[in-house]
Design a protein that fits this description.
Blueprint (H helix, E strand, L loop, with lengths): L1 E3 L19 E2 L2 E2 L1 E2 L16 E2 L4 H6 L1 H7 L3 E4 L3 E2 L10 E5 L25 H8 L1 H20 L3 E6 L71 H13 L9 E4 L9 H18 L4 E4 L16 E2 L2 H13 L16 H13 L2 H6 L2 E3 L8 H4 L21 H13 L3 E5 L25 H16 L1 H5 L1 E8 L2 E7 L4 E7 L9
Parallel strand pairs: 1-6, 1-14, 4-5, 6-9, 9-10, 10-11, 11-12, 13-14
Antiparallel strand pairs: 2-3, 7-8, 15-16, 16-17
Helix pairs in contact: 5-6, 7-8, 7-11, 11-12
Length: about 500
């Protein structure tokens, strides 16, 4: 698999770029990064900062991904949203025109103060106009068709625990209030059809102001109140069906903070059981893969999720063993570095929670949009960009250790997943620094070729895709394991020392 945060991958269509001051969100206006600054570091508070990457850009680079050996793309959220990460969705039915297609564009940006809520008319026109929305959906269907021609599957991100305060159901920022063909949002009118889709803490007062329940207290991420609305549940389930069905035929869902959905465990399990039934009925081959920290076993019962993002039984043990670093680069522990017993203990304990089928398709990542880049962890520097220069993420890195991690990734049980740019040598501390752009024209070509070669080995050896795994060696800074099928075997040996080792 290959994970792509679209805004940072490649700008293939400059006509759909977010404009400077196109809209106002969390205390400031949106900003368009000029083309010549593609390689600049992300801003510290950078959710309103857009580099211009889009689906056309990914389409333009399918040859590259095919040559790399990719068999599936996992996209961070693609639906209409005011942020570059798009985990604050405002419309689940449409691909955001800023990463899709803008075919209709009129109106001039308004000056500050011309509208009470400080939103520019062009933003409303561009992202609420059904012509742009329908054109973006049609383009996404075309994109998936082109990917499938290359035997590349497409997995999309489902953010169903919460939406965004921009969402047309809440409309806290009141951008839909004057748009045609939209109902009033729950924040705008107490007669809104969506009023019971959110948990308002004091319903005796109107307006509700900021008294609704937000995920982890964030008022920009209003939590969806499934217990209070069967209509809401039905709507989201239909979203789950829609995108894996004609004309899109997406190949599955990655589920954001899936264990948090609902206000109770009972609702959570009820929702995911019904979600699985509906999605699998629509597309029996669709993968349902959840983000989960901690024990996933209650959901891996054949009735809910297929598997998980494999933090506990892959990313964390590999990171501690090879670098001694915590996966956010928030801590360095010398006692964890090279500790083979801890490595095997964590792998066995947490791997047992996954069970066989889930383990075979678990998303094994070294880096992603939530954690520091693995290559940066090899420098053993504890830091984040709110108090450390982003240049420090690139200093004293160890590419040999990174290659060891990739070797484990490509020979371990599960689905190795490359976070865009890792294969090209991209560094970065945790969010937002881990969301740097892909360095087109400045790649580390040796690392790219290394990934091509090791992916080819992974794909050519049946035991690396479906075989069993047996620990062979566990010594300080030294591990070895075998992968076995009925007819073939592979031995992986990782020596994390700076000298040769002889082991019995």
């Amino acid at each position: 698999m290959y994970q792509i945060l679209v805004d940072r991958f490649y700008n293939g269509d400059k006509s759909n770029d977010v404009l400077d001051k196109e809209y106002f969100y969390i205390g400031d206006y949106s900003a368009r990064v000029p083309e010549e600054q593609w390689n600049k570091y992300p801003a510290q508070m950078g959710i309103r900062e857009f580099y211009g990457g889009d689906l056309q850009g990914v389409l333009d680079k399918l040859d590259y991904l095919e040559k790399l050996g990719i068999e599936a793309i996992y996209f961070n959220p693609l639906f209409v949203s005011p942020s570059n990460h798009k985990y604050d969705i405002q419309d689940y039915e449409y691909i955001d025109p800023h990463i899709g297609k803008i075919v209709y564009d009129e109106g001039e940006l308004l000056q500050d103060g011309k509208k009470e809520n400080r939103f520019a008319s062009r933003y409303i026109n561009r992202v609420t106009d059904k012509r742009n929305l329908e054109a973006s959906n049609a383009f996404f269907a075309k994109f998936i068709e082109e990917a499938h021609k290359r035997n590349i599957r497409v997995i999309i991100d489902g953010v169903f625990n919460h939406c965004g305060s921009f969402n047309k159901w809440l409309d806290k920022e009141r951008i839909y209030e004057e748009a045609e063909s939209y109902e009033k949002g729950a924040y705008v009118s107490e007669n809104s059809p969506y009023r019971n889709w959110f948990l308002f803490h004091d319903q005796s007062k109107w307006p509700y102001n900021n008294t609704y329940d937000g995920w982890w207290g964030h008022d920009t991420l209003p939590k969806l109140y499934y217990e209070n609305s069967q209509e809401l549940m039905e709507y989201i389930l239909s979203v789950g069906e829609k995108w894996v069905s004609a004309p899109f035929y997406a190949d599955g869902w990655r589920l954001d903070v899936a264990a948090d959905l609902g206000m109770s465990p009972e609702m959570n399990h009820r929702f995911w059981q019904e979600f699985r039934r509906r999605v699998k009925n629509a597309n029996p081959d669709a993968l349902i893969l959840a983000e989960q920290y901690g024990n996933p076993k209650p959901w891996l019962n054949g009735k809910e999720w297929d598997s998980v993002m494999n933090y506990d039984a892959f990313m964390e043990p590999v990171t501690w063993f090879l670098t001694g670093m915590e996966k956010h680069s928030d801590d360095f522990r010398m006692d964890m570095l090279g500790h083979a017993d801890n490595f095997w203990g964590a792998m066995k304990y947490n791997g047992a929670r996954l069970m066989g089928p889930a383990r075979m398709v678990a998303m094994n990542e070294l880096s992603n949009h939530d954690h520091s880049r693995f290559l940066t962890r090899t420098n053993r520097k504890v830091g984040r960009t709110n108090y450390m220069s982003p240049e420090m993420a690139e200093r004293d890195i160890n590419k040999a250790v990174f290659r060891e991690a990739v070797m484990i990734q490509m020979t371990w049980t599960g689905a190795p997943t490359v976070y865009y740019g890792d294969e090209a040598g991209v560094c970065g501390f945790t969010d937002p620094d881990n969301r740097r752009t892909y360095p087109w024209g400045h790649e580390d070509n040796d690392l790219v070729r290394f990934h091509q070669e090791i992916i080819k080995i992974h794909k050519s050896r049946p035991e690396l895709r479906t075989g069993s795994l047996k620990p062979i060696i566990g010594e300080f800074n030294l591990i070895a394991f075998g992968r076995f099928s009925d007819s073939s075997r592979t031995l992986t040996v990782i020596n994390n020392n700076d000298h040769e080792v002889t082991s019995s």
